[in-house]
Amino acid sequence: MKIVMATNNQNKLKEAREIFDSLGIVIISQKEAGIAIEPEENGKTFAENALIKAHAVYDLLKCPVIADDSGLCVDALDGRPNVYSARYAPEGQQCEKLLQELENIPENQRTAQFVTVIAFLDENGKEILCEGVCQGAIGFEKKGTNGFGYDPVFLYQGKSFAELSADEKNAISHRGIALRKLYEILKERSLNHAE
Fold it and tell me: Is there a contact between 161 and 154 (Cβ–Cβ < 8 Å)?
């Protein structure tokens, strides 16, 4: 099975491929599918934004499409940056801005969640939504060189996401959880079709 991922983000693409590869599902980028679009993500929720991206690509290709919208929700900031995570600060400065905003917040009040909603549209445009949540906390400094975005400051069981290997991160990350939920649904559907 081949699925087009509605993203220009190479890191997201890599994570999705690492998870689906072992399952015999090929993920190709929208660029590889011959389209270059950046739909406006003006939804109020992760689900709305994921569906906006998925439908934009599906409308052009009419084939199975996967899209995700993810973000960081920090409890001490009333859930911010939330759906605005990518636009929270200029590219590459998100961690610095976050650490600055949490400067005087003690360790026990730095809880946060990474949230992903994966939208899948099948060849007929039928929608499936899967959510993944990873509970953690925001550290006091950047740690690690793997990962991207907020990974260097997001702590899971004492380690930052950027200190984990790809396999370790995929096993517990919000995106990994949502992608595996989707995989189980797709596996179930293909078994039903085979009967």
Answer: yes
Cα separation of 67 and 54, whole Å?
5
CB atoms within 10 A of CB 71: 23
The C-alpha angle 19, 119, 54, rounded to 5 degrees, equals: 110
Residue 122: exposed, middle, or buried by beta-carbon count in 10 A (0-12, 13-18, 19+)?
A: middle
Hey, what amino acid is at 67? A
Buried b (16+ CB within 10 A) or exposed e, 12-22: bbebbbbbbee
Q: Is the dihedral of CA 173, 136, 78, 95 positive or negative?
A: negative
Q: Catalytic residues, which ones?
A: 69
Task: Please write the tens of the pLDDT for every residue from 12-45.
Answer: 898 889 888 877 789 999 999 999 898 998 999 9
The C-alpha atoms of residue 181 and residue 129 are separated, in whole angstroms, by 9
Closest among 51, 129, 47, 45 to 79, alpha carbons compared: 45
Q: 121-157 pLDDT, tens per residue? A: 999 999 999 999 999 999 999 999 987 899 999 999 9
Say what the pTM is: 0.89
